[in-house]
Design brief:
The structure holds two protein chains of two kinds. Chain A is of the alpha+beta class. Chain A is built from five helices and four strands, in the order E-H-E-H-H-H-E-H-E. In chain A, helix 3 packs antiparallel against helix 4. By secondary structure, chain B is mostly helical. Classes of the chains: A alpha+beta, B mainly alpha.
Chain lengths: 178, 452
């Protein structure tokens, strides 16, 4: 019988300091396809695993611009083109009156892009993930810190990677079935 | 956090670890048995909600004639309550967004339920304009959408601005609250032993696994959302004040309205936060997380915003005299000596004079005193909106069109009913969701700091 393919090798740590240190050393040892898991955002952890590209701000900027522009154009088209009504001699294109809705639409679209853009870039929602196969991983949302080396990393080898992770002084090491 | 930057009482009592913080907050939802007090409180709130539904149902049957509104006072309770509720909501966004940007980490233990309070307050607020329009089944006409009548909203009207401001505010508040909940829902998913709870919390947690890449994007998105919510919350009550200030009615047509409304909103919102936080920390034993420091800070915010509100009243009175406009001076006279004068004096007592006791440190740190003062402020802020709406409309330019406003029992049933609806939602919230942000509490612990 063929064994299930292996997703990676996971090490468990006690403290955020220990995890950041381990992540640094793993990255420096040449492992590039790695990830770390923590119960709260840990400062410097993303840099330690070599993650620098964050496109959330760009998504929010584009979303906000689309919201503001469409808000203004909607009001212009309605008030000056489709349904022009003379109210007390005010111009049809009375732009100062359109600022409030333009502003609210900017915020609305920017906020929606921030939330859904972040979820999409993170690949969420994803109810199943191989890391959940490790029973101890349930503590990743409480008080434990995990580091994983993916089996797709060119330097990955079942025994070599295990030996390397053991040298980092973890609490435990487990193989992650995919 | 070093001690120099954190004067006074601690934000979280010493001796907690990641594990105990998690267990303490999640056990309230997962293992703690539902107490009789909860059933009693929820039962009363639920009955009040039913009373509101009865009043609103009868309103749909008979129309707004069952309320006390008549010309010249066409706004009445519906608008008073709308402004009161939406103002209360403002403290939640202030705590979660503005204090986040200002790096006030003490907010971490009160932001979650303050945001929930915002959501429920905005829901209660949104109900009032909806049922006030007379034909609520056509309320969607307020939104621009292509239709066979070839008709569009009038974008030069502050009432249309208000539709956009309030609906944006409700949407962003919901997103902000939900996205803050996601990591804690994952904690509940992993901690619960009940299969149904695991599935429900699991679906809501969206498969959150705490990856460093995810946290990095999450923090960016959260910060940007806070940056967007900050001008939003200031704009919402500003636009609400435009509903008044753009009209030419005496007492409404002033430029002080936007800042004065925003300050009043935060004032009443913090009062509601304290009225909720003080019993919650007592009944659920959360004094270690919601400490004396939180109560003191909230009291100081109330003191500051209360003084801005007092300045607003002073300027209104000053302009009544200084403008030389006979209608404005008459409004001032009417407030002080007219038929609603007792209401105006109660307003001054509740909003300006009584809250000054918060200067006394001993009262600022006493939960009972703070609870009582907060109640007084909430009554005062309701009276403020009553004075603004009713007394200005009651006697405007033409003596022949003067009138009086008498709220009916349907007005009171709807108003008190929305308080019941708000409380019922809060009761459910503390029972099924973590009322304190667990992951943000973990970051407050000294061991969360990465040492080089």
């Amino acid at each position: 019988m063929k064994r299930a393919p292996i997703y990676g090798m996971m090490a468990e740590f006690d403290s955020p300091t220990h995890l950041v240190d381990a992540a640094h050393r793993t990255h420096e040892a040449g492992y590039l396809k790695i990830d770390a898991y923590s119960p709260f955002p840990v400062e410097g952890l993303a840099e330690a695993i070599g993650f620098h590209k964050n496109r959330v701000p760009l998504v929010v900027l584009i979303g906000g611009l689309i919201g503001g522009l469409s808000g203004y154009l909607l009001q212009y088209w309605i008030s000056a083109v489709s349904y022009p009504i003379n109210v007390g001699g005010k111009p049809y294109h009375s732009w100062p009156a359109f600022i409030v809705v333009t502003f609210e639409m900017t915020i609305l679209f920017g906020g929606i892009s921030a939330v859904f853009g972040m979820l999409a870039l993170n690949g969420l929602p994803m109810p199943y993930h191989p890391v959940f196969n490790v029973p101890r991983f349930a503590f990743a949302t409480k008080d434990r810190f995990f580091l994983i080396v993916f089996s797709t990393d060119p330097n990955y080898s079942p025994s070599g990677t295990r030996r390397f992770l053991e040298s980092l002084g973890p609490r435990s090491i487990s193989e992650v079935p995919s | 956090m070093d001690e120099q930057r954190q004067p006074g009482a601690p934000v979280i009592e010493p001796g907690y670890t990641f594990g105990t913080v998690t267990d303490k907050i999640s056990s309230i939802v997962l293992t703690r048995p539902t107490s009789n007090g909860w059933y009693l409180g929820f039962g009363v709130a639920f009955l009040l909600t039913m009373m509101m539904l009865y009043a609103v149902g009868y309103l749909f049957l008979r129309g707004v004639g069952i309320w006390g509104i008549t010309i010249p006072i066409g706004w009445g309770f519906a608008i008073v309550n709308f402004v009161w509720w939406i103002g209360i909501g403002h403290a939640g966004t202030l705590i979660s967004a503005i204090l986040l940007l200002l790096r006030q980490s003490w907010r971490n233990s009160i932001n979650r339920f303050a945001e929930a309070m915002t959501l429920f307050a905005v829901s209660a607020a949104g109900l009032f304009p909806l049922i006030h329009v007379g034909r609520p089944w056509l309320a969607y006409w307020l939104f621009p959408y292509p239709n066979t009548m070839n008709y569009w909203p009038q974008f030069r009207s502050p009432l249309v601005w208000d539709v956009f401001a309030v609906s944006t505010y409700a949407t962003i508040s919901l997103l902000f609250w939900f996205i803050g909940l996601v990591p804690d829902l994952a904690t509940l998913r992993d901690r619960s032993t009940n299969r149904a709870a695991q599935i429900i919390y699991g679906i809501l947690a969206l498969g959150w696994r705490g990856s460093a890449r995810h946290w990095h994007r999450y923090e960016t998105a959260y910060l940007l959302l806070a940056g967007l919510a900050t001008p939003l919350v200031l704009s919402v009550h500003t636009v609400v004040s435009f509903d008044f200030a753009v009209a030419i009615v005496p007492g409404w047509h002033t430029t002080i309205f936007p800042p004065y409304f925003v300050a009043g909103a935060i004032y009443s919102g913090f009062a509601m936060v304290l009225m909720l936080a003080i019993p919650i920390r007592k009944f659920y034993g959360l004094e270690d997380f919601i400490t004396e420091r939180h109560l003191q800070n909230s009291a100081k915010v109330m003191l500051a915003t209360g003084l801005i509100v007092a300045y607003g009243y002073a300027i209104e009175a000053f302009m009544g005299w200084y403008s030389g406009n006979r209608f404005d001076s008459f409004l001032l006279w009417n407030r002080l000596h007219g038929p609603y004068a007792p209401w105006y004096y109660s307003l001054l007592a509740c909003n300006i004079f009584i809250p000054q006791v918060l200067w006394i440190r001993k009262l600022r740190t006493s939960p009972v005193a703070l609870f009582l003062v907060s109640g007084v402020i909430l009554v005062g802020m309701w009276l403020e909106r009553f004075i603004i709406v009713v007394v200005s409309l009651q006697r405007d330019f033409l003596t022949s069109s003067w009138g009086m406003y008498y709220p009916t029992r349907w007005d009171w049933m709807t108003y008190i009913g929305t308080i019941g609806m708000f409380l019922a939602a809060m009761f459910l919230f503390v029972r099924i969701l973590p009322m304190i942000s667990i992951f943000e509490m973990r970051t407050l612990l000294p061991e969360a700091e990465v040492k080089e």
